[in-house]
Amino acid sequence: MPRPSGTDQKTPVRVLVVDDEPQIVRALVINLKARRYEVDAAPDGTTALELAATRHPDVVVLDLGLPDMDGVEVIKGLRGWTRVPILVLSARQTSDEKVEALDAGADDYVTKPFGMDELLARLRAAVRRAEPVGQHEAEVVVRTDTFGIDLAAKKVNRGGRDVRLTPTEWHLLEVLVRNTGRLVSQKQLLQEVWGPAYGTETNYLRVYMAQLRRKLEADPSHPRHFITEPGMGYRFEP
C-alpha cells in the first residue's frame, strides 16, 4: 500500500533538508515535525550526500546556494544512485538556473521567499509521484522498436539495459503511455504531473520531454514516439 504523505502517517516520510540558513532550517523542521515527518538536516552539500546515503530519505528539500558546492552538483551526485524526489528551494529566480536544476534531475523548484503551505503542498506532491503503482492498477507493458515500458514495475528497458528515470520523468511517461495515441494537453500534463496549481509552466514540459527523448528515442532530434503538437500538448506513439 502507498506510503502516507505528511498527515496521519503510519510509516513516517523522511525528509532531508539541505540549507545553510539556520532560520529556514528551523522553520522547516518545526513545520515538518508538526505534520509527523521525520527530518534530517544538512548545512552543506558534503553532509547532505553522506546523510542521503545513510538515512535514505523519501524526499530532499535542497537549497542551491551551499557553502561547499553548488546545489546542482548535489543533485547530480544523488541522481548517480537514487531516484529520490528532489525539491529545490532557492533564491535564484532566472529561468536558465531553474532549467539547469531541473535538467540535472530536480523534480520541482520553489523560489525564496516562499509560503510554507505551498512548499508543503509541493513536497506532498513530490512524494506522491514517487509512490509505486498500486496493485489494483492494471499492468501495462508497451514495446516499441527501441525500448520497452513496464509501468507496473516502473521499468524501462532499452537495448537490454534498464534506463534510470527520475520520479517526475516516470510520472510524465506514465500519463502519456496511459493515453497512447491521444493528444494530452500541456495543462493536463502539468496538472497531473506537478499538481493542480500548475498550468502555464510549459518550460517544465520542454525540459522533461527533452530528457525522455534523450534517454529513449533512437534520434532525439527527430522523435518517433514522444510527439509534440505545437502549442497544444504531447502524444505518445508506440
Short description:
The protein is 39% helix and 19% strand.
The percentage of residues in β strands lies in: 15-25%
Task: Please provide the ordered H/E string of secondary-structure elements.
Answer: EHEHEHEHEHEEEEHEHHEE
Roughly how much helix do the residues carry, as a percent range? Answer: 25-40%
CATH architecture of the largest domain: 3-Layer(aba) Sandwich
Mean pLDDT reading: 86
Straight-line distance between termini: 30 Å
At the first level of CATH, the class of the largest domain is: Alpha Beta
What is the CATH superfamily of the largest domain? Response regulator
User: Radius of gyration, rounded?
Assistant: 18 Å
The helix tally amounts to 8
Reported for the largest beta sheet, the result is: 5 strands, parallel
Shape: globular
Low-confidence stretches: 1-9, 133-139
Query: What fold name goes in the CATH topology slot of the largest domain?
Result: Rossmann fold
Number of strands: 12
The number of domains is 2
By helix and strand content, what is the structural category? Answer: alpha/beta
User: What order do the strands of the largest sheet run in, or round the barrel if closed?
Assistant: 2-1-3-4-5
Subcellular location: Cytoplasm
Keywords: Cytoplasm, DNA-binding, Phosphoprotein, Transcription, Transcription regulation, Two-component regulatory system
Pfam families: Response_reg (PF00072), Trans_reg_C (PF00486)
Domain Response regulatory: 14-127
